[in-house]
Structure formats: structure tokens, C-alpha cells
């Protein structure tokens, strides 16, 4: 199919729903560990509590990719029905997460939230490949990254913004502060509205051969064989990208799960108070606990705000690439390699910074890596696979995102960081080493079409 080139506004509209998706991911990534700690989780238990997120992605994304490849509605298209279903479920889960009365309830809501976000997210990746000619693929994924950067920065700062308006950061023992509850409710609203904007401003191409499409759709009991067949026949470039993705996503899962305990303890000297260390029946001890808890909550707000910097820097990184890729080709391999290594340096700095303000520099460098992770691998992959299977391939590619997170959650982060010492900040060192390894692994990519799309007459 000859696809026309789209304007910036058209690409912006089709990607705008990612603003809401990233509100969900940024609130989850920046503040779920804080919620777990508030509800009594020990810091070494936090990665395991996060296991719901990658496990859900491992199951949901290939299924949604497979189903969306076989969906067509003249009114709603192929991918948009999944955007909408995921948005409704995600918004409900986002609202209720900070109201969890117990740790197991919060872990359960994380499971529901991540499954719902995945329902919306996977078809967005496929939509770029569906709608854009190959010469605009890098441009399209970079525009998505620009929107993701905006969402990350705003959502990461929401509790601080809300707190500055006078909403309380204090709460009773085991209760999430109102500032976090209001932030999550705001995120739920933005998630739904931004997805609706994309649903109603974007059209989709119908299947090229409707008769063949209907025949494929009518086949029964093909899901598991098709998935296994596509896994077995994945292109060599996809496998090599998987190595890069493994180290990249191990690093970012480590950040999402461990940055709050690591930085509140190491940089702000305000770790989460442990209830068993206080005599709560003694008024003076209870007051000391409440004071320590309020310090921890305010430090957590600050950590969230500093983390938002990586969204802001990824946004500027993406903006530069948007301007550049609209007119010129880029070497995706070297852009990705350089960005990942810079992000690794950002993590490695955290253990040695002399004051908290240096976290801005750390997270700025991490943002370069994040901006590249959200665009370059998908641009390289989309140039290497059958466009008729774009949905299911993008879903299978997600395995290279979730498997490292599962390994990290099942003890990988705690085991490796404990080799360096018991301090939580060692987890950030592990994340830094992983991103450097991910950067070096780009030497594995040798497919010229994946590295630099050669512009042809279209």
C-alpha cells in the first residue's frame, strides 16, 4: 500500500493518546513504590511487589497485538477500539490505587492498572507503522516520544504541584497522603480525555485485501500456533534488538522500583520510618514517627519531581530529533548507543553527587536514554518486519521489555545490588551499568535498512 506522508498535526493527533498513557506510567513508576512503603513494605520487598506489571505485559501485549491485527470496524478502525477499552479500565484503576487500605490491595490494583495500560499502549506502537510510510517511521516514533516526555514531566510533578496548592502531604500511619490521591485522580482524567482525542481525530487504513483479511479472521484456534510461529521466525535484527532491550529495561525497572527508597535514604536522608522501631502507644514516639513519615512523604515528592526531569529532557531530545528527522536521515544505531551510555552515566553519578540539585543532571542524562528507548528500537524494528503482522510482532517484541523486568522483580535487582552493599543506592549503580551494556550492545545491529532508512522515491 502506498501511504501518503502525514503532516505534523496529523501525527500529533494520532499520538496524543500517549500523553494519557504516560500519565499512567509516570504515576505508577514514580509513586507506586512510595505507596507500597507507606503501606508497610520493606525496601527489599518492593521489586517483587512490582512483578505484576511485567507479568501482565508479557501476557496482554501479544494477545492484544494479535487481536488488533484481526479487528476491523468501518467506524472505529483496527487499533482504536483497544485504545478506548484500555483507557476506561486504566482511569478506574488509577483513581482507586492510592485509596488501597492494605499492601495486597495496592499490589492487586497495580496488576489491573498495568494490564489496562498495556491494552491501550501496544496498538499505539502498531498504529505508527500502520499509518506512516517508512520514510516517516523515525519521525512518527519520535513525535510519540515528545508527547511521552511531556506526560512524564507533568505527571511526575503532580503530587508536588498539588501539595503547593495546599493539599496535605501528611497522613495517618498506613494511609496515602491526599496530595497523592488528588494527583492520581487528575491522571485518570487526563488518561481518558487524551485517548478520546486520538480516537475521534484519527482515521485508519482498511486492510489491503478485505477478502484475505476475512479468511484469516475466520480461522479458528490459530492464536497459539500463530504466536509460536512468529516467535520462531522472528528476524535476526529483532533478536539482536532484544539484547539491547534486556539491559535497557532491567535498568529502568530498577529505577521505577528502587529510586524512591534509594534517593530518599541516600540523598535526602529521609528514609521511610519502620513502625516496629517506634512505640506507637507512647505519645512522644508516635509524634516522632509522624514527623519522620511526613519528612519521607515530602522527600518522596521531591524524588518524583526530580524524576520528572527525565521526561522533560526526553521531550527536548525528541523535539530535536523531530526537527532533524523531518528533513534528514539519522543513524538510529549510533543515536541509540550514545543516548543509552549517557543515561548510564546519569545513574552512576547518583551515588557520588554532593547535593540533591545534581539529580537534575543525572535525570537529564537518563532522559536522553529514555527518549531513545521509546523511539529508536521501534523505528529499527518496523523496518525489519512484515507490515501485515505489525500488531502481533510489536506485541511479541514486548517480551524483550517484560522478561528483564520479571528477572529484576524476582530478585535480580536485590541480589546484584546487595553484592555492592546493603545501601539502597547501589540499585542505581546496577541500573547505570546495565544502560552502558545496552549501549555497547548496539554494535550487534548490522541491518542497514534498520540502521538508516534509505529514502526512495515515493
UniProtKB/TrEMBL annotation:
Keyword presence, Transmembrane helix: yes
Q: Where are the transmembrane segments?
A: 12-36, 48-68, 80-97, 103-121, 141-162, 182-200, 241-259, 303-322, 359-380, 392-418, 424-445
- Supply the PROSITE patterns for this chain: MFS
Keywords assigned:
Membrane, Transmembrane, Transmembrane helix, Transport
- Known InterPro entries for this protein? MFS, MFS_dom, MFS_trans_sf
Which Pfam families has this protein been placed in? MFS_1 (PF07690)
Q: Which GO terms describe its cellular component?
A: membrane
Q: Does the keyword Transcription apply?
A: no
Where, subcellularly, is it found?
A: Membrane
What is the top-level taxon of the source organism?
Bacteria
UniProt topology in membrane: Multi-pass membrane protein
The protein, known as: Maltose/moltooligosaccharide transporter
Species in which this protein is naturally found:
Tenacibaculum skagerrakense
Amino acid at each position: 500500500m502506498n501511504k501518503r506522508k502525514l503532516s505534523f498535526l496529523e501525527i500529533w493527533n494520532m499520538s496524543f493518546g500517549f500523553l494519557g498513557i504516560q500519565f499512567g506510567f509516570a504515576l505508577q513508576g514514580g509513586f507506586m513504590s512510595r505507596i507500597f512503603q507507606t503501606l508497610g513494605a520493606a525496601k527489599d520487598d518492593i521489586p517483587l511487589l512490582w512483578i505484576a506489571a511485567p507479568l501482565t505485559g508479557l501476557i496482554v501485549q501479544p494477545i492484544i497485538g494479535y487481536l488488533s491485527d484481526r479487528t476491523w470496524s468501518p467506524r472505529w478502525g483496527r487499533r482504536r477500539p483497544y485504545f478506548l477499552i484500555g483507557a476506561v479500565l486504566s482511569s478506574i484503576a488509577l483513581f482507586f490505587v492510592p485509596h488501597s487500605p492494605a499492601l495486597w490491595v495496592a499490589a492487586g490494583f497495580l496488576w489491573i492498572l498495568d494490564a489496562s495500560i498495556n491494552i491501550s499502549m501496544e496498538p499505539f506502537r502498531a498504529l505508527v507503522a500502520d499509518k506512516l510510510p517508512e520514510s516517516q517511521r523515525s519521525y512518527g516514533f519520535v513525535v510519540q516520544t515528545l508527547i511521552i516526555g511531556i506526560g512524564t514531566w507533568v505527571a511526575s510533578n503532580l503530587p508536588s504541584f498539588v501539595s503547593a496548592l495546599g493539599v496535605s502531604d501528611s497522613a495517618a500511619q498506613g494511609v496515602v497522603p491526599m496530595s497523592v490521591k488528588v494527583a492520581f485522580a487528575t491522571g485518570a482524567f487526563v488518561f481518558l480525555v487524551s485517548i478520546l482525542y486520538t480516537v475521534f481525530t484519527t482515521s485508519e487504513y482498511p486492510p489491503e485485501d478485505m477478502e484475505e483479511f476475512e479468511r484469516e479472521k475466520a480461522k479458528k484456534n490459530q492464536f497459539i500456533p500463530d504466536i509460536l510461529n512468529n516467535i520462531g521466525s522472528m528476524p535476526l535484527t529483532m533478536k539482536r534488538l532484544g539484547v539491547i532491550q534486556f539491559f535497557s529495561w532491567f535498568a529502568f525497572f530498577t529505577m521505577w522500583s528502587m529510586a524512591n527508597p534509594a534517593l530518599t535514604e541516600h540523598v535526602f536522608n529521609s528514609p521511610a520510618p519502620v513502625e516496629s522501631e517506634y512505640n506507637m502507644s507512647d505519645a512522644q514516639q508516635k509524634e516522632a514517627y509522624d514527623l519522620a513519615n511526613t519528612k519521607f512523604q515530602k522527600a518522596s515528592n521531591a524524588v518524583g519531581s526530580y524524576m520528572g526531569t527525565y521526561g522533560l529532557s526526553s521531550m527536548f531530545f525528541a523535539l530535536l530529533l523531530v526537527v532533524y528527522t523531518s528533513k534528514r536521515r539519522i543513524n538510529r544505531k549510533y543515536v541509540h548507543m550514545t543516548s543509552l551510555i549517557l543515561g548510564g552515566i546519569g545513574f552512576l553519578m547518583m551515588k557520588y553527587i554532593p547535593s540533591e540539585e545534581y539529580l537534575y543532571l543525572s535525570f537529564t542524562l537518563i532522559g536522553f536514554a529514555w527518549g531513545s528507548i521509546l523511539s529508536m528500537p521501534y523505528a529499527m524494528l518496523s523496518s525489519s518486519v512484515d507490515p501485515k503482522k505489525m500488531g502481533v510482532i510489536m506485541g511479541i517484541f514486548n517480551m524483550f521489555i517484560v522478561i528483564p523486568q520479571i528477572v529484576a522483580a524476582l530478585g535480580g535487582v536485590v541480589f546484584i545490588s546487595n553484592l555492592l552493599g546493603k545501601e539502597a543506592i547501589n540499585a542505581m549503580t546496577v541500573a547505570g551499568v546495565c544502560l552502558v551494556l545496552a549501549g555497547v550492545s548496539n554494535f550487534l545491529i548490522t541491518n542497514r535498512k534498520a540502521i538508516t532508512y534509505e529514502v526512495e522515491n515515493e
